[in-house]
Structures are given as C-alpha cells and as structure tokens.
Amino acid sequence: MNTAALKKLNELIIIETDIFSDERGTFLESHQQMKYEAGGVAASFVQDNLVYSNGSVLRGLHYQLGRSQAKLIYVVQGAIFDVAVDVRKGSPTFGVWESVTLSAENHRQLFIPEGFAHGYCVLSETAAVVYKCSDYYAPAEERGICWDDPSIAVDWPVSEPVISERDRNLPYLESIPAAELPEYSG
Q: What is the pTM assigned to this prediction?
C-alpha cells in the first residue's frame, strides 16, 4: 500500500492499495488498520456505508458538526469524481476544494479527515461507493453546502447533474454562521 497527500489539501490522503491479480481474478485488502496508520490515516472506523447511484448523480457537499466524521471512500463498481472541501473556520485552506477520480478499476481510496465537507458525482452508468466513517451518523448533526457554491467553484465534470431537492437547497458557505462550522485545531 502506498499513500500520498493531495497537493492543495495535504491532509487528504490517497491510498493506492496493493493489488494481486492472476488468471482467477483480483485480490486486495480493502482495509488493514496497521497499514493505514503507518500511511498517516489516523482514524478508527465505526460505520460502513454502501451507496448505489445512477449516472450523473451528484451527492453532497455534506459534513457533520458535533459528531464530525473522518471518511475513507472507495468504489467497488463504476467511477466517481470525489470532492472534499475544507470547511474548518480559521483554517489556512478554508473553502479550498480538492478532487480525485475513484473507480473500481483504479482501486484508489481517499481518506478525508474530520472538518471537511464531502461530495461526489457519478461518472459511469452506475456506481457503488463504500465509505467508512469514524463516528456514527447523527441526523441532527448533519450539515451541508450547496454543490454549486460560486465561492468554492468546484469544477464538476457533469453538465446536468441529478441532485436531491435537499442537496439543491443547501446554503452557500458564506451564509453559514461560524457556529455551524467545525473548528480548525492547527
């Protein structure tokens, strides 16, 4: 397993898994805690989520406030354009976004620490996305930022995304009160 920090948001970590293939198929470890810790992923995961989505679906940008979650995302079928946005008040990279393409073919994983909003859009006809969370989902703590916030200006690769009514009506980052954003701890 190899890990590398992303350029703009170096707290985001790309994980390149070790893949073993032969005439029978492919084997890889989808999670191995000791290897993740050695690669800089400092989170224990308590919940796994599996999401099936159709092509051009855009989900996000979501974060939790009081029960903030670190996430480890990977794709088991299809491909997605995965995005993380730093929403920690006081962070030197506040409002900066980073993206990576995750797919069943490249087997990449993305680690997103607490304090970042997360979203993705489906690049393939369908996609199955797995994400591990470091804390349990708490509906009362769920927050979000509108996917097309001009101050963030994510360059989404779909021209007409399919978006839920709830996600379509999320606020822009500049209108979110500071008390509704996670803290940057430096």
A: 0.93
